[in-house]
Amino acid sequence: MPEAPRALAYVLAAGALLVLTAVAFAVGRYPLSLAEVLSALAGQAADPAVNTVVMQVRGPRVLAALLVGAALAAAGTAYQGMFRNPLVSPDILGVSTGAALGAVLSIFFAASIFLAQLFAFAGGLAAVGLVYGVGSRLRGHDPLLALVLTGVVIGTLLGSAIALLKVLADPYNQLPAITFWLLGSLASISPGDLAVAAPLALLGLAPMLLLRWRMNLLALPDDEARALGVETTRLRTLVVGCATLMTASVVAISGIIGWVGLLIPHAARLLVGPDFGRLLPLAMLMGAAFMLAVDTLCRTLATIEVPPGVLTALIGTPFFLWLFALSRRSW
Amino acid sequence: MLEARDLAFGFPGRTVGSGIGFSLGAGEVMCVLGPNGGGKTTLFRTLLGLLPRHKGNIFVNSDSLESLSRGEIARRIGYVPQGHTAYFAFTVREFVLMGRTAHLGAFASPAAKDLSVASRALESLGIAALADRPVTEISGGERQLALVARALAQEPRLMVLDEPTASLDFGNQVRVLERIAALAGQGIAILFSSHDPDHAFLCAHRALLLAEGRALEVGRPEDVIRPDTLERMYRVSVQVLTTEGAMHTCLPRFNRPA
Question: What is the pairing mode between strands B238-242 and B2-11?
Fold first, then answer.
């Protein structure tokens, strides 16, 4: 693709993100004008209610949407390149299922929604660690295939553990909390949650940004990448670690929100091509914008909050099919 | 440049070939001939350190292969694999630039110098016009040439080409063989495999006949490519003809239906 339309993609994505951020601050049960939002952000709001809405209620939620969307899209971009497959989402190795099991366990045993975040984070890392440990010991197979199959099998096992806990859970106190967590939500994310999750996600992002050229070579067959001088096993381990850290840190605060990590990298690739260094920033911009749009709709569409996972699926399914029909041959 | 001593190779738990020994000097071309399943690709992968060897030693510039890092091997040996499955729509230029990876720091991206190396590699193979096309949308033969260009971008002293002519038309086959001869003229050592013994006659200094899990013969193509060795490898009857200018060519004794 020529340079000019490529640059346009970044400008449009950044512009959309800016507009969506302004809209997200303005709309809601307590509508604000743009001037009110800006004055509150500058710390000069005349009305303390405006200040509270902007800084305490909507601010953290907007930041959460940006963080969750960008992190899921970045992890998805890395995984799709590494697994050489545009239909891969960041939870293919079980990070979401592991996080879900961790959260459900803590709700079931400790009945604590606060501990749930910690357990979800640990559960996500542990599940991927288990999958990676088992998968990379299955010698004599294509290493990627071994990983994916191990991920599917262990994911199913963890899924049935979640199902069992749901059956056993107290249907009045625990089950609603479990269901709520499994559907995902940005409604209850506090500034403190963000202060923990954002650095962890950045920690996962940094190596990917630094290694952006080498990441491209993971899309080659293993032999070729190694013959070109890449230690594929080491690089793959690093990518799995980074993507898992990013995903687990946001899933722990938001619950499971599907489709972002699958759909956004794919759409970004159609715009700027597969080069990781160009793809990653655009996917993060688009992921942040998409998540923010979805979350804003979630809290304004109806009097109750619509779970974002439901909305991402409703938007994602037709959009994905449309993208798929659009791209005949290549990703 | 490249030396194998008493080499045994294969897959974990299954040895495919053994007793392989040869050495290849700068500017020399060696052609590996052998039947399907004879172990040519497995031998090449072993020589590149992509498969662990079962026995013997491999030396690259008199350094043992084990002592070299992946990056060091990539700077010394350019590899053209047999065919390539393209998963993502990288442009041909980006694809060829990947050959520069071993010359870049871990966190670096290709710079202007790398771009010019890639452009020269594309031009030398006559595919500069394809530079901005996606590798997923070019023909198999064009992709083969792009693979050769990528190996050239590695700026290696030795090139290993696994059936570089396999999916090419007659004209492109000749062009790739000419390219191989020209590279050898620049002092690059070349190891390639082919299904056509004539390719060894055309541009190789030596031929290695790989069959029955060992090196049947290693030597000058005129000496080792004979009706008896060809029949033993391929199980067909072949005559070797000498043409004008002392060139050689193989012609099967064809059984026409009566």
Answer: unpaired
How far lies A102's CA from each of A72, A110, A117, A126, A320, in Å? Answer: 19, 11, 8, 9, 30
Structurally, what CATH architecture does the domain formed by A3-326 represent?
Orthogonal Bundle (1.10)
pLDDT over threshold 80, residue B147? yes
Residue spans per domain, chain A? 3-326
Q: Would the pLDDT of A140 be above 80?
A: no
- Bridge partners (DSSP) of residue B64 are B59
C-alpha–C-alpha distance, residues B22 and A18, integer Å: 65
Evaluate whether ipTM surpasses 0.85.
yes
Beta-carbon contacts of A95 under 8 Å, excluding residues fewer than 6 positions away, are A124, A125, A127, A128, A244, A247, A248, A251
Q: Is the pLDDT of residue A139 over 90?
A: no
d(CA A138, CA A149): 11
Determine which of B41, B46, B70, B88 to mutate to test the interface with A (most A C-beta atoms within 10 Å): B88
To the nearest whole Å, the CA of B175 is away from the closest chain A CA by 24
Q: B77-80 and B214-219: which strand pairing? A: unpaired
- Give the separation between CA B113 and CA B209, rounded to whole angstroms: 40
In angstroms, how far is the first alpha carbon of chain A from the final one? 13
Taking one residue from A and the other from B, the number of pairs with CB-CB distance under 8 angstroms is 87
Tokens for A196? 């923990």
Give the pLDDT of residue A110: 77
Q: Which of A89, A90, A86 is nearest to A331 (CA)?
A: A86
A102: helix, strand or coil: helix
**b/e sequence B192-226, b meaning 16+ C-beta within 10 Å:** bbbebbbbbbbbbbbbbbbbebebbbbeebeebbe
Please tell me the total number of residues recorded for chain B in this structure: 258
Residue A72: which of A214, A173, A186 has the closest Cα?
A186
The torsion angles phi and psi of B219, rounded to 5 degrees, stand at 170, -170
Confidence at residue A2, expressed as pLDDT on a 0 to 100 scale: 57
pLDDT of residue B200: 96
Average model confidence (pLDDT) for chain A? 90
Q: In this structure, which amino acid lies at residue A67?
A: L
Chain A interface, Cβ < 8 Å to B: 81, 84-85, 139-140, 210-214, 216-217, 219-221, 223-224, 226-231, 269, 273-275, 277, 329-331
Query: Which member of B85, B88, B98 has the closest CB to residue A228?
Result: B98
Q: For B59-81, what is each residue's pLDDT tens digit?
A: 999 899 999 999 999 999 999 99
| A237, amino acid identity | T
Sign of the CA dihedral running B187, B189, B193, B197: positive
Buried b (16+ CB within 10 A) or exposed e, B58-83: bebeeeebeebebbebbbbbbbbbbe
Q: What is the 3-state secondary structure (H, E, C) of A194-261?
A: HHHHHHHHHHHHHHHHHCHHHHHHCCCCHHHHHHCCCCHHHHHHHHHHHHHHHHHHHHHHHCCCCCHH
> CA-nearest residue of chain B to A277?
B109
Contact call for A227 and B48, based on CB within 8 A: yes
